[in-house]
Design a protein that fits this description.
By secondary structure, this protein is mainly α. The protein is built from 4 helices and 2 strands; from the N terminus they run ααβαβα. The chain is 37% helix and 8% strand. Helix 3 links the parallel strand 1 and strand 2.
């Protein structure tokens, strides 16, 4: 058995044990038999948790390109962003999103990089 093989088969579980419990049991056995994996496993869990609650934000409706395959302008029905919305409003919005537990932000729609001030707003004044 290599150091990364599960020490037991999942099919060896008692009939009343859930798959999640069985995986956890196998994982604990694996980590106990290979202590060098514990730190790597902890880092992997931390990374996975960062993506646990994602959200998608359209912050721009302008784009300097018309890329083949881009769906954003398809049909001409795009959500309109108020170009006059103050950065303070964006900051408040993103603070509320952080309180909501959003752990990963995806900025989509047209070309978000054309609004550098809006992209930077979520990180301003936050820990």
């Amino acid at each position: 058995m290599s150091s990364y093989d599960f020490p037991e088969k999942l099919s060896d579980k008692p009939r009343n044990e859930s798959t999640a419990r069985q995986v956890a049991r196998c994982l604990n056995t694996l980590l106990k038999s290979n202590p060098n994996l514990a730190q790597r496993y902890a880092k992997a869990k931390q990374t996975i948790r960062a993506f646990r609650k994602p959200a998608f934000y359209e912050i721009e409706t302008k784009c300097n390109l018309k890329c083949e395959g881009c769906y954003y302008f398809e049909g001409g029905d795009t959500w309109k962003i108020d170009p006059n919305r103050e950065n303070a409003d964006w900051r408040l919005f993103f603070e509320q999103e952080a309180q909501r537990g959003v752990s990963m932000a995806y900025f989509v729609g047209a070309e978000p990089a054309l609004s550098q001030d809006r992209l930077c707003t979520p990180s301003m004044g936050m820990n």
